[in-house]
Predict the 3D structure of the following.
Amino acid sequence: MDNTTAQSVIDAQVEITGTIKSGGSIKIDGKLKGDLQCEGDATIGKSAVITGNLTVNSVAVAGAVTGNIVAKDRIQMQSSARVMGDIKAKRLHVEDGVTFVGKSEVNPSGGPVSSTPKPEAEESRSGMFSGKK
């Protein structure tokens, strides 16, 4: 996250209904019922409650988001984050303790993902997570 540029702040006492469009970075600690379209980086504070979709460069989430998140670069979910929706980014960082219900697409190349047939051994385990630690 780039902290060298000016950042707009939505304080914890503020509640907004509607779409927020920002050409720079933004920090939200309040409530937003609507979408966030941010060309810069977004910080969603612990007290933030967002019901809407986020389209951002990068985002750090510590609060609650009910909606989809699309980041050009990175999504960081801190331990207090509660995300209910699908996410898509080049990079993903998830701390222990996060609540996340949705689908994720993480593609470091940023290009389209090719659909290759699964080997037979994988088809029988399609419901299991087989990630490495």
